[in-house]
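Run log, item B.
One chain of 283 residues. Sequence copied directly from the ordering sheet:
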Amino acid sequence: MRPANIVTSVADVLAGITISGYIFGPEIDFLAIILLCLSTIGLYGGGIVFNDVFDFELDKIERPERAIPSGAVKLSEAIVLGLFLLVFGIASAFLYSMLSGIIAILIAVCALVYNKFSKHHPFIGPLNMGICRGLNLLLGVSIIAYSLNNSYIIAVVHLIYIFSITIISRGEVHGSNKNKLFLGAFLYALVIGVMLFFAWQKEQILLALIFIVPFAWMIFRPLFRAIQEPIGKNIGLAVKAGVISLILMDAAWAAVFGSLGLAFFIVILLPLSIWLSKRFAVT
């Protein structure tokens, strides 16, 4: 289920809730926030389980240590768990609103399409994965329906970031050529540039830099190491850092949209994700 990654999906939803302006309203329904967080936990966990289900035959060769090929979990058990998590995620979203439920269904469908069909396509696969994460951010934004109208561009930024991580991850098992890594670095820089532009527009540049600077350091440091020596281990570390750093990215969005308090709350998720990443696989 990749617990460390699930924490980053919760950060996405919290960032989306901040972007919607919900936390600045006169009344905050914490049950609504909890339902959307539970929804992303189920959706992300279920999507990852089915990633291993569909990769079962390949993992027997390339990653025999994973839960299913190692025999720790039966294939049938994994399918039941994956279905339960996806249904749980969709149901939690529908308990809040019809719109959130529809977005949850889209996330589940996109995750299954990625796992079964598009994963190994050099362009469609990363794009598909980026769409999943962009929709996850919009799941948080959907806490106020009309705020979706002004949030698609930020979801596209999330899409580009995840697209770049997925491009980089292509060489995780057998190594990679440097062109893909340079492309990932360019897209990382593009994402940071757009975030700085939003921060400048909203006159929150100094607050945003509190989170953007460590975010940039955390993603570029291992990526440059991988560019110098593009072997599987270094690429895996770059991918791991890129996934976990999503928490800092989400905290930066919260700061850009005027909630320094929630930004620091999101940052608290970072040590939890790092701790989990040392005990469970991230990629």
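Observations after the first pass:
- The chain is about 75% helix and 0% strand.
- The mean pLDDT is 95.
Flagged for discussion on Thursday.
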